[in-house]
Structure formats: structure tokens, C-alpha cells
């Protein structure tokens, strides 16, 4: 059994309410040694901290998804910021820009994203970045603040070769999820171009279930299937991919396993 870490999951989603303990146990039995439970708003930020307190192998990331920033009050931001000092909080996320659904006005998204970038400088916690249909906007925002020296990960990466080089040059890691196993996935070359020491694996559970579970509920145990596909693309053993992505994750988020 290969040790691996699911760097991005949402265990507070409704899909897990009835059998969360079983989901967590299946992950452990499959070799998952840690899970980073990533929030999307204030309520889920509190939830991920509570769950992290209850389980040694679950860690928390707190932040506000770009879909939800339109509803955030200043008082809520203050509560979120205070959560960053919790010992089980290992990242700021997920934060970023999403121009696909435009559930929050784009200028509001940009303003809040800049605020979360400030938090990185103030706390040193890595960023977990979400971007969809906003790749051309998010890179310049980051480059304006720093050409290099960022710590964090672009989760469920959807960019092209140029963007991959840009975010790697700025210091970020890149993570992939179950969509790389889909027949219609078109960015195999981008996946192959990412150096192994900058790669991470995730599920984004309960979303993005990998083949052969596509269309069903995703869960952290399935991160092994993502690692297997990465190994196939990079022409490496799954043991090597799991070992290196685990080391990358431990180092970036400061985990001890």
C-alpha cells in the first residue's frame, strides 16, 4: 500500500453527512495518511477546524471561495483571520477567481483575492488557489505583488503550458484531480511537463470522481487513482509518484507524518 495525501477535499459537504466516519476510515485503509479539508466560506471554515481538532490526520484550510465573497461582511473576515492562528490550519483557501459562473461580481472577487494575498504576507500560510475561466487575470494579479516567492498550490489545475511555467516560476505547486482520468481530458502534455517535485494530488471530493467512479460521489480514498494516472503520464511507478507528492505536501504545508 502506498502512502499518499489528499491535498484538497470537502468533507463537510452534504454528501458526506450520513457516513463521514466510514469515508475517513476507507481513506486510511487505502493508504491516505492525511487529508486537507478545504473551506469555501465562514461556516465551512469553522467546520473544517472542528473536524481537524477531532482527527490527527485531518488538517484545515480556511478562506472564502470566489463564488461566495459577494456575501462576506468585514466582521466575518475578522473571524476567518483569527482562525488562521489555529494549530491545525495549514493554508488559506480556497481563494481565487471564478469567471465561469460569475456568482460574485468580478471586481469584488479581485478585491477579496487581494485581501487574501495580504493574509499570505501577514501569516506565511500557503495559498490554495481556485481559478476557472480567469487564468489570464489571476497570473498578472500575482505577478504584480511578487515575481517569485509565493507559497501555495493551484488546485485542479486547468491552465496551459505557459501558465504552468508562470506559476511554477512564482513558486507555486500544481495539483491535479480525478479529471485527468477522463477520456475527454486534453491537457496530458501540461501534466507531463510539471516537475515531480512540484506536483500534488487531490480529490476535490465529493466532486470530480476519477474513472471508474466518474459520475458518482468522490471521496479521499480515490486519490490513489489520481496518483496512478499521474504515474502513467509521467512513466513512473505509483510508489515514486506517491512518495514525491507526499514529500511535497509535507514540506509545503508543514505537516509531520
Can you offer a commentary on this structure?
With 257 residues, this protein is of the alpha/beta class. The protein has one domain (4-253): Alpha-Beta Barrel (TIM Barrel), CATH 3.20.20.140. The protein has helices at residues 20-29, 42-54, 74-83, 106-123, 135-145, 161-169, 188-193, 223-234, 238-253; strands at 4-9, 32-38, 58-62, 89-98, 127-132, 152-154, 173-176, 199-201. Strand 3, helix 3 (74-83) and strand 4 (89-98) form a beta-alpha-beta unit. Helix 2 (42-54) runs parallel beside helix 3 (74-83) and helix 8 (223-234) packs across helix 9. The mean pLDDT is 96.
Helix content: 40-55%
What is the succession of H and E elements? EHEHEHEHEHEHEHEHH
Helical/strand content category: alpha/beta
Domain count, please report it: 1
By CATH, the superfamily comes out as Metal-dependent hydrolases
Q: Please describe the biggest sheet, giving its number of strands, its sense, and whether it closes into a barrel.
A: 8 strands, parallel
In CATH terms, what is the architecture?
A: Alpha-Beta Barrel
- So how many helices? 9
Classify the beta-strand content into a percent band. Answer: 15-25%
Give start-end ranges of low-pLDDT stretches: none
Global geometry: globular
Strand order of the largest sheet: 1-2-3-4-5-6-7-8
Mean pLDDT: 96
Please identify the top-level CATH class. Answer: Alpha Beta
User: What's the end-to-end separation, in Å?
Assistant: 16 Å
Radius of gyration: 17 Å
Task: Determine the CATH topology.
Answer: TIM Barrel
Amino acid at each position: 500500500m502506498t502512502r499518499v495525501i489528499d491535498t484538497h477535499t470537502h468533507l463537510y459537504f452534504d454528501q458526506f453527512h450520513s457516513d463521514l466516519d466510514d469515508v475517513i476510515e476507507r481513506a486510511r485503509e487505502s493508504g491516505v495518511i492525511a487529508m486537507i479539508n478545504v473551506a469555501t466560506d465562514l461556516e465551512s471554515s469553522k467546520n473544517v477546524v472542528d473536524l481537524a481538532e477531532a482527527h490527527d490526520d485531518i488538517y484545515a484550510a480556511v478562506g472564502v471561495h470566489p463564488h461566495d465573497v459577494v456575501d462576506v461582511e468585514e466582521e466575518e473576515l475578522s473571524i476567518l483571520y483569527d482562525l488562521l492562528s489555529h494549530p491545525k490550519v495549514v493554508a488559506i483557501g480556497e481563494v481565487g477567481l471564478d469567471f465561469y459562473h460569475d456568482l460574485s461580481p468580478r471586481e469584488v472577487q479581485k478585491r477579496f483575492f487581494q485581501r487574501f494575498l495580504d493574509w499570505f504576507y501577514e501569516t506565511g500560510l500557503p495559498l490554495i488557489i481556485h481559478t476557472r475561466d480567469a487564468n489570464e487575470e489571476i497570473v498578472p494579479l500575482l505577478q504584480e505583488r511578487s515575481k517569485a516567492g509565493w507559497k501555495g498550490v493551484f488546485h485542479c489545475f486547468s491552465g496551459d503550458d505557459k501558465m504552468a511555467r508562470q506559476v511554477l516560476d512564482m513558486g507555486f505547486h500544481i495539483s491535479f484531480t480525478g479529471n485527468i482520468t477522463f477520456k475527454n481530458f486534453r491537457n496530458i502534455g501540461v501534466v507531463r511537463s510539471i516537475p515531480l517535485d512540484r506536483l500534488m494530488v487531490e480529490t476535490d471530493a465529493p466532486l470530480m470522481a476519477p474513472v471508474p467512479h466518474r459520475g458518482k460521489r468522490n471521496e479521499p480514498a480515490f486519490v490513489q487513482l489520481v496518483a496512478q494516472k499521474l504515474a502513467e503520464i509521467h512513466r513512473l511507478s505509483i510508489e515514486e509518484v506517491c512518495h514525491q507528492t507526499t514529500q511535497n505536501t509535507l514540506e509545503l504545508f508543514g505537516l509531520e507524518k
